[in-house]
Specification:
- The chain is about 5% helix and about 45% strand.
- With about 375 residues, the protein is mostly beta strands.
- It has a nine-stranded mixed sheet with strand order 2-5-8-11-16-19-22-26-25, with no helix packed on it. The chain has an eight-stranded parallel sheet with strand order 1-3-6-9-12-17-20-23, with no helix packed on it. The chain has an eight-stranded mixed sheet with strand order 4-7-10-13-18-21-27-24, with no helix packed on it.
- It is elongated, with a radius of gyration of 33 Å.
- The chain starts with a helix and ends with a strand.
């Protein structure tokens, strides 16, 4: 009998321990349908919630207090206070997160907090702000200044002025999707997934940010220019350069003659067609940024085109001849014709040592329309 009682007590104790160790089921997030909200209202959220964008509607702003918010849907949410556009975004207070899975969101102010973007399209407009009778562009984007703040992009499309996570140990992670920023991506840590690629600036990597001095701790910035545009897209959408060639491998020019060179890419539909041009001897032949070669002196020079993607090179050998070499030099000569007070813009021919120079390439003209003393200024670069 005593043994039976002990067994029952042991069994009861074991069952109570099992019950005690059972995980507590988290409450289901509250569902909020955008269609149930009033046009232009401020949405205040105090518990874990799911906002369903089931219709097109404008809200003034969304405030999230110490909880999580998930956003999904197939329609468009516009955040615009219709007056100042200074408090019309999403503001998260505390360490909660905001997850955007689908839908379209357009905001006239920043989205502040910790964000996980799994899909959808988010567009945050840059604002024009007036001050002291002047206006300037004020950036808007994703922001968080708290320590350990984070922005994670897994899919979807984000267009904004900036992604600025300035707290200590903050993280911006881009695993997928499309990002276009007109200014900066800044954080303590910036991680670009192996399936993503920075196309503007091409193949840029995070570097020390000028903002470090402002926030007094190390920060990284994505891009070469502190205020340059940033573009990140899936690597699968890029056609990388495999080789380049120049339209001619060799040609002969007279002194003062021009020749347009062009580059062909392999494959033809590459994503990045930017090239830089250079000459082995500018005293013989000079090349412009768009591949126009000008003969300057007798001799041979090699013109090189180098692709930004992959650093592939192609060359063209230029031989410059001077048929008047040894003759008396005329120097710089400027001729005017058809010049009257009515036209104010004469026909101008500029030559050097008998060779006709090309306007826009070898020299530029600035017209002076002063009625008392009409004239022109011709600028010839060094």
């Amino acid at each position: 009998m005593k043994k039976s009682i002990i067994s029952i007590i042991a069994l009861s104790l074991m069952l109570s321990l099992i019950a005690f160790n059972q995980p507590a089921f988290a409450a289901e997030p509250k569902t909020i349908n955008l269609s149930d909200l009033e046009e232009g209202q401020v949405l205040e959220i105090y518990e874990d919630s799911m906002l369903n964008i089931d219709t097109d509607k404008r809200l003034s702003q969304i405030n999230v207090y110490y909880c999580d918010l998930t956003i999904k849907g197939s329609e468009t949410l516009t955040l615009d206070d219709n007056e100042y556009n200074e408090n019309s975004g999403i503001f998260s207070f505390g360490s909660g997160k905001i997850t955007i899975n689908s839908g379209s969101i357009t905001s006239n102010d920043s989205l502040i907090g910790n964000y996980i973007i799994n899909g959808g399209t988010i567009k945050i407009n840059e604002q024009t702000v007036g001050m002291n009778d002047k206006s300037f562009s004020s950036p808007r984007g994703f922001r968080q200044s708290d320590d350990n703040g984070y922005f994670i992009m897994n899919d979807g499309m984000v267009c904004a002025s900036e992604i600025l996570y300035s707290g200590k140990d903050s993280n911006v992670t881009i695993n997928g999707g499309h990002i276009e920023c007109t200014d900066n991506i800044v954080a303590s840590n910036i991680n670009i997934g192996e399936n993503e690629y920075v196309t503007s600036p091409w193949n840029a990597v995070p570097s020390e940010s000028f903002s470090s001095a402002i926030y007094h701790h190390p920060l990284l910035s994505l891009g070469e220019d502190p205020y340059g545009s940033i573009k990140v897209i899936p690597k699968s959408e890029i056609n990388f350069v495999e080789g380049i060639s120049i339209s001619e491998s060799a040609c002969t020019l007279s002194k003062g003659e021009h020749k347009q060179l062009s580059v062909s890419f392999s494959p033809e539909d590459v994503t990045n067609k930017n090239v830089t041009w250079s000459s082995s001897d500018n005293n013989v032949a000079n090349v412009s940024d768009d591949g126009v070669v000008t003969g300057f002196g007798s001799g041979t020079a090699v013109i090189t085109a180098k692709s930004e993607d992959g650093n592939f090179e192609a060359t063209c050998e230029i031989t410059v001849s001077d048929p008047d070499e040894g003759k008396i030099k005329e120097g710089l000569k400027i001729e005017f014709s058809d010049y009257s007070n009515d036209t104010k813009k004469p026909t101008i021919k500029v030559s050097y040592n008998g060779y006709i120079l090309k306007e826009g390439n070898d020299y530029t003209i600035n017209y002076d329309n002063d009625n008392d003393a009409p004239g022109v200024t011709i600028v010839i670069p060094d």
